[in-house]
Amino acid sequence: MERKNFQKNYLINFIAVLFLFGIIVMSLQMKLINNYYQGLLIIAGINIMAASSLNLAAGYMGQLALGHAGFMAIGAYTAALIGLHTNLPVMAKLIVGIGCGGVMAGLFGVLIGIPALRLRGDYLGIVTLGFGEIIRIALYNLPFTGGAAGLKKIPKLINLPILFVILVLVISFLFLFVRSRHGRALLSIKEDEIAAESVGVPTIYYKVYGFAVSAFLAGVAGGCLAYFQRALDPNKFKFMLSVEFFIIVVLGGMGSFTGTILAGLFLAFINEFLYEVDELRLVIYAVLLIVVMIFKPSGLLGNREFSLTASGRWLKRKLTEKK
Amino acid sequence: MALLTTENVGIAFGGLQAVGHFDIALEENELVGLIGPNGAGKTTIFNLLTGVYQPTEGQIYFQGKKINGKKPAEIVGLGMARTFQNIRLFKNLTVIDNIKIAFQKELKYSALSAILRLPAYWQQEKVVEDKAIDLLGLFHMEEDAHKLAKNLPYGKQRKLEICRALATNPKLLLLDEPAAGMNPQETRELMETIGFVRDNFHLTILLIEHDMNLVMGICERLIVIDYGMIIAKGTPEEIKNNKQVIKAYLGS
Ligand SMILES: Nc1ncnc2c1ncn2[C@@H]1O[C@H](COP(=O)(O)OP(=O)(O)OP(=O)(O)O)[C@@H](O)[C@H]1O
Ligand SMILES: [Mg+2]
User: Chain A contacts of B81, Cβ < 8 Å?
Assistant: First the structure.
């Protein structure tokens, strides 16, 4: 396909996103979405953001990363501390806070990525899992994180439209990033590390690179969480949160960001019904996973993406066929 | 100066000396065959040359530079490419993406220009796309560009692997049993292609092959190994009549 076609696609998607944004703003204004549902949608959006970041590491790069709740926590606490202790105008605070949260998480991604990414499969899973728990324990004990009580009265800087914009930026970033030489290098690592190295892909460099980008975005999701919930405590970032992200990724399809979005919305929706039976939630997740593994092991969308323009072409073909 | 020289290279896996006292020198634009019975150590030698294994003894020089201890990707950067005995393609990616990944030296744009889709991105991607199609054309595979690699028939998968290796712009190409699993017709075609590639890309090729008759046809020089040691070097004529080689192949 030619450059012109791509640019047309980008434009169509941009207009569609703008349209969706308009709908969100209008329905808030007309009070079609009450505060409760706004909150649900924001949480769903944050989970989608974190799961998408995990999808980069797990789906695109094929690395079993089980510590994303840890990166999210780093981003959340960083953003919260900036929110509490600086005197910036609201918008600047939002950008600086979330940006620093992402960068801090990304730095930790590099730090643990360098030793950990030499390990494969289960071993990497165990190390990243351990990392997530260490972060949580550290948050209990550090002098500036408020211990078990956590941080309170964090400024509320996130509402649904703002979160929507950040989510769109994150997803667009991921889409554009994976369709580049860097993204192809990550894919080649997932496919066959030895072959990737044998055609000149410095695999360790790219693994750390991809892992750091993934951690950065998880940190951004954490920052959003801090600025929405106004209170943080270490128990929000338990190992089960990492598992939840993983479930979203697997349900949606490893390597499909649109799949992650769909699965994230779906899980938010059923969570709403499972609210009453919280203990049963994990059982139901497990059943869901088993069902998916039996009927569609590659997840909802496999490694494909939902594409507006492709669906448009498909619809057009169907319509002309009928005539 | 020789393109590749090895001095007394060897590797032991635990107690097993898989390769020992391996001394060769490859000149530019040569087509050399590396032959030997099953388990002789041929693939291990490729793994040593390309940095997959580190030799436990000896030195390897490529274009006058010592390359022991370098990572495989660095060695590729210096101009050595390979294929694998058990094909290693990026199976779930398209044929053209397989090749684009190998154009590491060609693509220089930053992640930022990729995300903002700056002109550098479009220009370089276009250049690489065209080059990849040209390469596929040499192997009569243009139409397969957008198929998934795993959906290609076996013979084409082997060719794609050679294509992908060529995309790294090598000076030395190492082919590990490229004709394995092909029928005689496909094998003949492949051998022609290899000769063509050597002349067209001005390459040195080191070719592992099981089938003696096959290598006799196209290689100028043969190196025979058995139990990890070189047992003979020479022209196909000399090798054909070498007693040790006959013994190694027929058993004693
Ligand atoms: N990583 C390894 N660890 C232990 N032993 C190994 C390793 N790699 C190779 N070997 C051993 O080294 C010897 C040579 O193996 P190699 O694969 O190089 O043989 P080959 O000549 O390529 O054989 P074939 O013709 O069957 O491909 C064999 O005995 C093999 O078992
Ligand atoms: Mg072999």
Answer: 198-199
**What are A208-228's pLDDT values in tens digits?**
999 999 999 999 999 999 999
Crossing angle of helices A308-322 and A3-29, in 10° steps, is: 100
**Which are the contacts of A86, defined by CB distance < 8 A and separation ≥ 6?**
A93, A96
Q: Return the residue matching tokens 């896996």.
A: B13
Rounded Cα–Cα distance for residues A42 and A79 (Å): 17
Within-domain flag for A111 = yes
The ipTM is 0.92
Q: Which residues of B touch A (CB under 8 A)?
A: 50, 52, 71-74, 76-77, 81-82, 84, 88-93, 97, 100-102, 104-105, 107, 109, 111, 114-117, 121-122, 126, 164-165, 167-168
The domain ranges of chain B are 4-83+153-250, 93-147
How far does the CA of residue A126 sit from the closest CA of chain B (Å)? Answer: 26
What's the pLDDT score for residue B243?
84
* CA Rg value for chain B: 19
On average, the pLDDT of chain B sits at: 91
Q: Report CB contact under 8 Å: B101, A303.
A: no
- The verdict on residue A51 lying in a domain is yes
* B241 CB-contact burial (10 Å; exposed 0-12 / middle 13-18 / buried 19+): exposed
The alpha-carbon radius of gyration of chain A (Å, integer) is 20
Distance CA A224, CA A50 (A): 10
- DSSP labels, A236-296: GG-HHHHHHHHHHHHHH-TT-HHHHHHHHHHHHHHHHHHGGGGGGHHHHHHHHHHHHHHH-
pLDDT at B146: 95
Q: Are A51 and A260 in contact (CB under 8 A)?
A: yes
Residue A181 is assigned to a structural domain of this protein: yes
pLDDT of residue A323: 62
Residue A223 in contact with residue A118, Cβ under 8 Å?
no
Chain mean position to CA A49? 3
Q: How far apart are CA B198 and CA B162, in angstroms?
A: 12
Looking at domain B4-83+153-250, what is its CATH homologous superfamily? P-loop containing nucleotide triphosphate hydrolases (3.40.50.300)
- With the CA atoms of B213, B217, B218 and B219 taken in that order, what torsion angle do they form, in degrees rounded to the nearest 10? 60
In chain A, DSSP assigns E strands to none
Q: What total of structural domains would you count in chain A? A: 1
Element (H, E) at A223: helix A203-229
Instruction: For chain B, say whether A281 makes contact (Cβ under 8 Å).
Output: no
Q: Is A125 among the domain residues? A: yes
Structure tokens at B214: 């096959």
Spatial distance between the Cα atoms of B219 and B236, rounded to a whole number of angstroms: 7
Low-confidence ranges of chain A (pLDDT < 50): none
pTM given for the model: 0.92
Q: Which atom of ligand 1 is nearest to the CA of B16?
A: 5
At A222, list the tokens. 């954490």
Q: List the one residue out of A284, A276, A287, A265 whose CA is nearest residue A49.
A: A265
- Token representation of residue B208: 């592992």
**Amino acid sitting at position B206:** L
